[in-house]
Amino acid sequence: MVKIQVPATTANVGVGFDCLGIALNLYTYFTFEETDEFSISGCEERFQNEDNLVYTSFLKALAYLKKEVKGVSIIIDSNVPVSRGLGSSATCVVGGVLGAYELTNTAIDKEAILNICTEIEGHPDNVAPAIYGGLMASYQSEKSVISVPYLVDERFHFLALIPDFETKTEEARKVLPKELPFATAVRNSAKLSVVLKGFEMYESNILSEVMSDEVHEPYRKPLIHEYDEVRAICEEIESVCFYISGSGSTLMNVMRDTEQVEAIQKRLDKLEYGWKCVMLDVDRAGASLC
Ligand SMILES: Nc1ncnc2c1ncn2[C@@H]1O[C@H](COP(=O)(O)OP(=O)(O)O)[C@@H](O)[C@H]1O
Ligand SMILES: N[C@@H](CCOP(=O)(O)O)C(=O)O
């Protein structure tokens, strides 16, 4: 039997669409045991079948490794809410692939795991930090994925504002434009390069100034009820910068001062939709055995 923990991730980090992601200290736990036949439990009933993403990822990794198991029992224990932009699908993919490696006693090869996971997930920005921890920047070519780490000063905290409604990544990708004006692309890449240094150097002013994405956020904002109200509350109380976590629906407020969380929650409680504040920090280890 093996038990694996995989961190949640906040992808895009505003201006890094499909390339930036940060691992957070919120986890899903996966237990794998070789048995006579397949069984899965611990997740919602709609996912308790052979189409379960953990199981399909597990099978893909076994096929890649050219290994077999008789059957597998998978138990999921997740703290990562589904379809809220905190990388629940990436936890399942990374958990399933790592489960296949561990259950077959295969030596861990993170580069190969990153490539398998990216192929399943379709983009590397969640799976890279879920595997390696920390802030990762990734480039996906036709052949493979290159992921490199960047630092995040530990005085930054990530306040996840999680609403009571879902945004499915598949749907949130459909609203994106097919093309962008040249000047927009140039501005966004300039912001991206500056943002990376801002996280490393604890440069709050720089982050406040450049964290305004023009590639995906303007198109996705209308999918998130009360975006403007939530943002205004955070900016009034305490906010270094604010962005849509992954494809939403969670909104992320980067903070220095953790004492203001209660004040923000109190104001959010007066809104029409349910919003829950969860204070998170960077996970620096990535997926690991428990
Ligand atoms: N605990 C879980 N058990 C089974 N499948 C899950 C679980 N969590 C997430 N998933 C899978 O991931 C999908 C959600 O992925 P997605 O819409 O990309 O949202 P997220 O932003 O949470 O990654 C679900 O529809 C399901 O297929
Ligand atoms: N780059 C992806 C990230 C999706 O992250 P998730 O946490 O919402 O699955 C996108 O923006 O579509």
From TrEMBL:
Similarity section: Belongs to the GHMP kinase family. Homoserine kinase subfamily.
Subcellular location: Cytoplasm
Organism this protein belongs to: Breznakia pachnodae
Protein name: Homoserine kinase
Pathway involvement of the protein, from the record: Amino-acid biosynthesis; L-threonine biosynthesis; L-threonine from L-aspartate: step 4/5
Record EC number: 2.7.1.39
UniProt-listed InterPro entries: GHMP_kinase_C_sf (IPR036554), GHMP_kinase_N_dom (IPR006204), GHMP_knse_ATP-bd_CS (IPR006203), Homoserine_kinase (IPR000870), Ribosomal_Su5_D2-typ_SF (IPR020568), Ribsml_uS5_D2-typ_fold_subgr (IPR014721)
Keyword Kinase: yes
